[in-house]
Specification:
Blueprint: H1 20-34, H2 41-48, H3 52-55, H4 62-74, H5 84-101, H6 117-129, H7 135-166, H8 170-185, H9 191-199, H10 205-225
Length: 227
């Protein structure tokens, strides 16, 4: 029986009451503070001031705990809007915001579909908004938006982590490597790259995300509108 369907142990009078929700929230707090490496059943038990064996009545494995953490965060992802375009844009924005608040989420999304109730509710909202669109378009369109958001979010989170590790923000990094690029471009070996760096738009993370998303939504709209 999957963790979503498996009942919790019955309540009993103990000094430290326990529930699956309390376990998951403690794990999320640890991950928010120090990343996924800080999450283990033993560390979660310590945070809740209970013995590790008590957790096994609620969660069988660390993998189940991670699934529950992802689903708990999906309670924050509630796509809404009038029409499929607004709903897909809302899905992208809410997913990105959740990943920025919980950086570890970027490490856990993008694999096999999540099957928790909150994740299913998010998917239901998106598909319901696309109810008038042919399924042959709906399935790849939603997959494309999810793939775009996951890729963009992972790039942004990787940049954040690189800043923390290196101690340099993006402008400082560019200033450090700028002279090398100038010398390299001066050789004339990379004219297309040189043109983009010198003359192309320099968008920040928000502009990059939203511009790319609009390109994608424009393509989906063109596909839906084509006879």
């Amino acid at each position: 029986m999957l963790v979503w369907e498996r009942p919790e142990p019955p309540d009993r009078p103990v000094p430290a009451p326990l529930s699956r929700e309390r376990i998951v929230q403690a794990a999320i707090q640890l991950a928010d503070a120090d990343g996924l490496d800080a999450v283990s059943l033993r560390k979660v038990a310590a945070a809740l001031d209970v013995g590790p064996m008590r957790l096994y009545g609620y969660i069988a494995t660390k993998e189940e705990l991670l699934d529950l953490m992802v689903d708990a965060v999906h309670a924050e992802i509630r796509p809404a809007g009038d029409g499929w375009r607004e709903v897909l844009r809302s899905l992208a924005e809410a997913t990105r915001q959740a990943a920025h608040q919980h950086e570890w989420l970027a490490d856990l999304i993008g694999g096999r579909p999540q099957l928790g109730p909150n994740t299913l509710a998010s998917g239901e909202a998106v598909l319901a908004a696309m109810g008038g669109v042919d399924l042959d378009t709906v399935v790849p369109a939603v997959a494309a938006v999810n793939a775009y958001v996951i890729g963009a979010v992972r790039r942004e989170i990787t940049e954040r982590r690189a800043e923390r590790v290196s101690g340099m923000d993006q402008k400082q990094w560019q200033a450090t490597f700028g002279p090398y690029l100038q010398r390299t471009f001066a050789t004339g070996r990379f004219p297309a790259l040189a043109t983009v760096v010198h003359d192309g738009p320099h968008l920040d993370a928000d502009q990059t995300f939203w511009t790319g998303l609009e390109f994608l939504l424009d393509g989906i709209e063109a596909r839906i509108s084509s006879p």
